[in-house]
Design brief:
The chain has 320 residues and is of the alpha/beta class. It has helices at residues 2-22, 41-56, 76-88, 99-108, 143-153, 169-184, 200-209, 221-225, 227-237, 261-276, 298-303, 310-313; strands at residues 30-36, 65-71, 93-97, 114-117, 134-138, 159-165, 188-194, 214-217, 241-243, 255-259, 286-288, 292-296, 318-319.
């Protein structure tokens, strides 16, 4: 009963906040709800990119639109509650930031335009189709290029450690793709599911005990939360950490290759602006992103025992 009451109480707080913000519609402002799964530098950068594109198109928060940003604090259940509140407030548009948010909106929201950023496609996330009211930009996930990059740093790679969240469809999809690609190359993958960030310590200890040569964190909000701990152990055991989110090199990874999040947000925001201006979500659908970045953290790489050839250093888009 205590858990049920807590969930209900959280929902009431979210609903009250949303309804207060939605009152701006009475002043003629369009009401836009943004739901983000957690506080994260990559997600934050994408969200700011969305807002920048809206501003460039003439949609400015507090002037002709009201942006109501809600963070789910890494709780999947909170996403549904936030979406319910947006729906009850008759939002003019919902913008989702992360795959879990996109999936929840695709399943729940039927009559409000939804624009997705920082996400895999509905099909990648295990859905059979993409709803007509959903548009946005997704990551086609350049798995072959990522594995090629890992092998360029560790050419004798035989064992990979891969912790992943069992509660995030994006994490499950990326883990499955990585397992297939490494297995195809006769490289063993120690894949360990985690239910929340509290499970990460045990997963990493198991990975270390099984002689993993690298640790990979891929498209996984839960595992990224534990990256400082992973980096600490990786430094002690001299096991380099590779990520598919380049910005995570600031939180403890040595090498990052993946989508440019600023560009991702900007492109998603352009779609949102055009829909607000009268176009339909079906005019866009879900489009693949085309810009990727390669980041290196030299200090972290050294701490984790990874040598960086000059030939790879010169190819990096950014070196920390």
């Amino acid at each position: 009963m205590d858990v049920i009451m807590k969930i209900y109480f959280v929902f009431l707080i979210i609903l009250a906040s949303v309804l207060i913000n939605a009152c701006n519609k009475k002043d003629g402002k369009l009401y836009i709800g943004i739901v983000q799964i957690s506080e994260d530098p990559a997600l934050d950068q994408a969200r700011l990119g969305v807002i920048k594109s809206l501003e460039d198109a003439g949609y400015r928060d507090g002037e002709n639109i009201k942006i109501d940003y809600k963070n789910a604090q890494s709780e999947i259940g909170n996403i549904v509650q936030i979406l319910s509140a947006f729906e009850m407030a008759n939002a003019d548009m919902i913008i989702t930031n992360s795959t879990p948010c996109m999936v929840a909106a695709a399943q729940k929201i039927k009559n409000i335009p939804v624009v997705a950023t920082v996400t895999f496609s509905p099909e990648q996330a295990g859905m059979t189709s993409s709803p007509a009211n959903l548009a946005g930009v997704y990551d086609p996930f350049k798995i072959v290029e990522f594995v090629d990059l890992v092998l360029s740093f560790v050419p004798d790679l035989q064992i990979v450690g891969l912790p992943y969240s069992i509660s995030e469809p994006n994490a499950q999809f990326s883990a499955n793709q990585l397992i297939k690609e490494f297995t195809r190359r006769n490289i063993k993958v120690i894949d360990l599911p985690v239910y929340n960030s509290n499970d990460i310590a045990q997963a990493i200890q198991t990975i270390v005990s099984k002689d993993a040569q690298v640790i990979i964190a891929s498209a996984d909000n839960t595992v990224y939360l534990g990256l400082p701990y992973i980096s600490k152990i990786a430094g002690e055991k001299k096991i380099p950490v590779f990520v598919t989110d380049p910005l995570q090199v600031e939180k403890g990874a040595a090498i990052g290759f993946g989508v440019d999040y600023d560009f991702w947000g900007l492109e998603s925001g352009k779609i949102a602006a055009e829909i607000l201006s009268g176009k339909k979500t079906t005019d866009f659908g879900m489009k693949p992103i085309v810009k990727y970045t390669f980041y290196i953290n030299k200090k972290t790489a050294q701490e984790q025992g990874l040598s960086i050839p000059d030939s790879l250093l010169s190819k990096a888009d950014r070196v920390f």
